[in-house]
TrEMBL record:
Biological role stated in the UniProt entry: Catalyzes the conversion of epoxyqueuosine (oQ) to queuosine (Q), which is a hypermodified base found in the wobble positions of tRNA(Asp), tRNA(Asn), tRNA(His) and tRNA(Tyr).
Chain's gene name: queG
Gene3D superfamilies in alphabetical order: 3.30.70.20
Protein name per the record: Epoxyqueuosine reductase
Family (UniProt): Belongs to the QueG family.
Active site (record annotation): 143 (proton donor)
Length: 357
């Protein structure tokens, strides 16, 4: 560490960082150290139970998730930020879910890819900090590396882990993205969130369509609709297909019923506003997209990474669960001979659901 860094008033610098973060659009920022050893036992238990499913990288990274200095050597302080994502004027989630002919896509995915938006904003924060103090060691993370984001945020006083395992903040609910800036600066840590405020509420557990929240604070990803529609690359297990309903990309049920989300705020970030009418669109319309349509419309979206084949797989399941109509049957029949074996399988299942096989 240079002499100039040794002479810094880190208490003042920490307050400046939080102010700069808010100027950049983050709702708030918090700071914590790198000792996450208390989380290792729970992480190992979750992995040993196989709850990570086909996400092999989870097991491959192992305890590195709880050891920030192994992920980025030299790290001694972590800055945690979050950014609300609810798009203003989006169609009512409950109404879309209740209409089986519509496609429900998780609210976080209706706009541009949050990875790029948050990473860019966190890098701006790092650049602002470097302009103030000179070069320093750092690395930006946004849901793309082995990082215990919720644990870090809780340790930084940003909120508490809900029974659905997502971070909840008293003033913002849970509809927000989390990001981190790892640094080699000895910043004073904020007090951790010591209490959780879920009380005896179990709404998130009971509402889960697939029973993925197997116990408070414990999710079996293999049953989670977000995993099944996004992370799972192969065939969706038969037992879960009817439970997906019209949820074709992710699921928000556990957040929708959370009492703390009455405090959720709409995002101020234009990049998270609804694109291509995805908040209120029929399954038939999305199933008709060509691969070129998918690539053009989903460019710059988090949805793009699942690819066209998986997109059609999900839509086929949604159509299998949709109210029977001539339009639904025609849409499925048009893809009965799709080049993809994965798509054909799910189309055949969907047609069988409507008594057409």
């Amino acid at each position: 560490m240079t002499t100039s860094l040794q002479q810094l008033d880190y208490q003042k610098l920490a307050q400046q960082i939080k102010g700069w973060a808010q100027e950049l659009g983050f709702a708030r920022a918090g700071i914590t150290g790198i000792d996450l050893s208390h989380a290792e036992a729970g992480l190992q238990e979750w992995l040993d139970a196989g709850f990570h499913g086909d996400m092999d990288y989870m097991a491959r990274h192992g305890m590195k998730r709880a050891r920030p200095a192994e992920l980025h050597p030299g790290t001694i302080s972590l800055i945690s930020v979050f950014l609300p994502y609810l798009p203003p004027a989006a169609a009512n989630s409950e109404e879309i879910l209740a209409n089986g002919s519509k496609a429900y896509l998780s609210r976080y995915a209706l706009g541009r890819d949050y990875h790029k938006v948050l990473k860019g904003r966190l890098q701006q924060l790092a650049d602002r900090l470097a302009a103030e103090i000179g070069p320093f060691g750092h690395r930006v993370f946004v849901d793309s590396a082995p990082v215990l984001e919720v644990e870090i945020a809780q340790q930084a006083g940003q909120g508490w882990r809900g029974k659905h395992t997502l971070l909840i903040n008293r003033e913002y609910g849970s509809y927000f993205f989390i990001g981190e800036l790892f640094t080699d600066l000895p910043l004073p840590p904020d007090p951790p969130q010591q209490e959780e405020h879920c009380g005896r509420c179990t709404r998130c557990i009971t509402v889960c369509p697939t029973g993925a929240i197997v116990a408070p604070y414990k999710v079996d990803a293999r049953r989670c609709i977000s995993y099944l529609t996004i992370e799972l690359k192969g065939s969706i297990p038969l037992e879960f297909r009817p439970m997906l309903g019209n949820r074709v990309y992710g699921c928000d049920d556990c957040q929708m019923v959370c009492p703390w989300n009455r405090f959720a705020v709409d995002t101020n970030e234009a990049d998270f506003h609804v694109r291509h009418g995805l908040d209120d669109v029929t399954l038939v319309e999305l199933f008709a997209w060509s691969e070129a349509d998918f690539k053009q419309k989903m460019a710059g979206s988090a949805i793009y990474r699942i690819g066209y084949e998986q997109w059609l797989r999900n839509m086929a399941v949604g159509l299998g669960n949709a109210p029977k109509s001539a339009g639904v049957i025609a849409a499925l029949a048009a893809r009965a001979d799709d080049p993809s074996e994965l798509v054909r399988e799910h189309v055949q299942w969907a047609l069988a659901q409507h008594g057409m096989v």
